[in-house]
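Minutes, structural biology subgroup

Action item carried over from last meeting: produce the structure token record for Cobyrinate a,c-diamide synthase (Thermogemmatispora aurantia). EB confirmed the sequence was re-checked against the source entry. Recorded below for completeness.
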Amino acid sequence: MSLNLPRLLIAGTASGVGKTLISYLLIAELRARGWRVQPFKVGPDYLDASHLAQAAGRPCYNLDTWLMPSARLETIVASACRDADLAIIEGMMGLYDGREAHSDAGSAAEIARLLQTPVILVLDAWAQARSAAAVVLGFQQFAPQLALVGVIANRVAGPGHARLLREALASSSGMPLLAAFPALSEAPWPERHLGLLPASEQALGGERLNTLLTLFRQSCDLEQLLTLARQAPPLATGEAQAEAPLTAPGEERVRLALAYDEAFSFYYPDTLDLLRQAGAELVPFSPLRDHQLPAGCSGLYLGGGFPEEYAALLAANERLRRQLAELLAAGLPCYAECGGLMYLCHHIRTASGESYPMLGVIERESILAGNSTDLRIGYRLARAQRESLLLPRGVQVRGHEFHYSHLDADPTPEEAAYMLSSPDGQHQQLEGFARDNLLASYLHLSFSGFPEAAQRFVAAARRWRQVA
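Output recorded by EB:
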């Protein structure tokens, strides 16, 4: 099967050149004109994806060849784009930056190649003109088989600067300058230790968004961008497989409570899709504001986020903390990632030294480091140390870590969920906690890498509903 899908990949020459802002404004402008735009984000990042989802008014799917098989990408894109007019894929870091020095593995270039998607290169043009053209020429010649079709210059000083850039590009690489976006006096989004604030906390809107969209319309050749998007060839898809349910016809859905608010918002949409296909009804609730779990829920999913930023409010919600601790002690199936793991600990200690009580299900304190040397970031191999809620013993899955906090003590061999290692199999370490009804870890997983995890989670919730 194939899908005629206009699409563009918005890549950068490096991190920090403005590709998230450009992607956001392009999506928001097209949506304002009545287009149904499906956003995607290359790599494991939740934060940029949350803003693209807000711009589009629909989930932003991550495309990551470490977290999921490359064959799964087309299925995800086809499923997400069933009712879309166009897809916008935002890259990560620079166009060619990925997991390896000698290949495009894990890079935006790899995604563009696998999905046969035209690439728009965003560069920071501040204080350069012809030199910017040299950079573009290098990107063009580095992988000539890639469909690099145009350039967007960010932080352009004015019309004269834009003219120099346009002429230098035309006379060197032949690349068209599709937009010359002006320098801004302030960043569109605030940041903190993990990057941009997520859209659940700081959505772009109001007069600020209107001003940025006006600048974008004035500086961008939108019709030429759309013409380039339509040049994308038909996309081979696995759409039929994507739609196949994993449950028996007529089987009643199981309600899974999904923690979702400012403190917990890190979820991969493909994981949520697989849970629904396995028979789950996902019921959002707020650990900050709700005083009890939604009625009829037979499982609990605690995603990542920033519980350390809301530790006082989470601690103050004693009624919910007490109910969740009692339900988990009684056997309620629960999967927790990163921030969810922190919430399950007996305390969270913030960077300023305050310690706040949490659920106490895991006998550890989660401590937020006060400096960047304690950052744990990167892809991981994870081998299941025992049978757990999601995984059979001995199965190896792939995940990603990104956190500044740590536990006051590592899991014991009897407690550990995983043996973690780096992608090359080195630097092994026990991590996470696995019990009969609980799997909690700093590791972020996409269930697309092991779809059976969704089926196991829903099956466990179904069993608990029958005996609870």
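Discussion: DSSP finds 14 helices and 28 strands in the chain.
Next step: EB to file the record with the rest of the batch.
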